[in-house]
C-alpha cells in the first residue's frame, strides 16, 4: 500500500495495482484518524463531477415528498458521517471494489426544498450528466420520490430497466392529497412513462396495513413479482435471489432500497416504519444476491436521522451502500 496522505484532509489516496492502474482508496484508520476530515461517503475523495469515475456516491437531500415523519433531507449527511467505519474490503464476500473501479463522492444534487416538481427536474438533469460519463450512481436519499426522476434519466440512457425494489411499501400509489409526485407514487409514474421492463421487476419486503384487501394487485397486474415480507420471515433469501437473477437476466437493472424494508428494530430512523420487516442479514443477502446482474444504478432511501437516536439506521445504510458497490459489474473478488 502506498499512502500519500500526510494530514487529515481529502487528498486522494491511491494504491498502484499490478494492472498498472491506480484507484481512489479510502485512507486506512491505521494511518488517518477515522473521525478526521470532511465527511464524504466512505472517506473517499470528493470531486465536483462524475468525469473519470466508474461509480459515484451522490446525495439527494429531500424529504418534501414524505407523507409522515420528515427528516430524510438529513440522510446523506448522516450516512456520510457513519460511513467513516467503512473499510476498503468486503470481509464477507472478499470483494475489492477499490481495486476494480474508480469511485468518489460527488456531493449532493442542488435540490429545491420549496418545490418538489422543480426538485425532480433538477435530479433528472443531474443524473443525465452523471450517466452521460458512463458512471454508475449510488444514491443516498432523500425520500423515495427521488427514484422517479433518477429512473427517467436511467431509462433515457439504458432503455426500460429491470428493477429490484426492496421496501415495506409498493410505492405505486396514483395520487396522494391530489398530487402525482410524492414518496408513495414513484413506481406508478415510472410504469406510466415506460421506464421499467415490467416483466423484470421484483418488489421484496412489502407489508403493513392497507387500503384494500389486495394492496399489491396493481403491481402484479403490471407483471411485477411481489415478494411480501411474510413470505421472507424466518428464511434465508439466498434461494429467492437465485430466482430473481434468473428473472432479471442480462439486461440493465436498477436497485432501489428503501431502508424501511428492514424491521424498525434494525432501522428505526425512517419516515413510515412498518413492523415485522426484513432482518439486516436478509437485506445483505438481497444485495449480495444481485451479484452478476447488470446493475446500472442503485439507491438507498428514507433514512431520517431525527428518528435515528443511536445513528444505527444511518450506519446500516452506509454499509448497505458499500454492499451495493461490491456487487457492481467488474468488481474484483479474492475468491
Ligand atoms: Mn419506499
UniProtKB/TrEMBL annotation:
Binding locations of Mn(2+): 144, 167, 169, 171, 258, 260
SUPFAM superfamilies: Arginase/deacetylase
Official protein name in the record: Agmatinase, mitochondrial
Cofactor note: Binds 2 manganese ions per subunit.
GO MF assignments: agmatinase activity; guanidinobutyrase activity; metal ion binding
InterPro entries linked to this entry: Agmatinase-rel, Ureohydrolase, Ureohydrolase_dom_sf, Ureohydrolase_Mn_BS
Cofactors: Mn(2+)
Similarity field: Belongs to the arginase family. Agmatinase subfamily.
Record lineage: Eukaryota, Metazoa, Chordata, Craniata, Vertebrata
Organism: Electrophorus electricus
Keywords of this entry: Hydrolase, Manganese, Metal-binding
NCBIfam families in alphabetical order: agmatinase
Cross-referenced PROSITE patterns: ARGINASE_1 (PS01053), ARGINASE_2 (PS51409)
Biological process annotations from GO: putrescine biosynthetic process from arginine, via agmatine
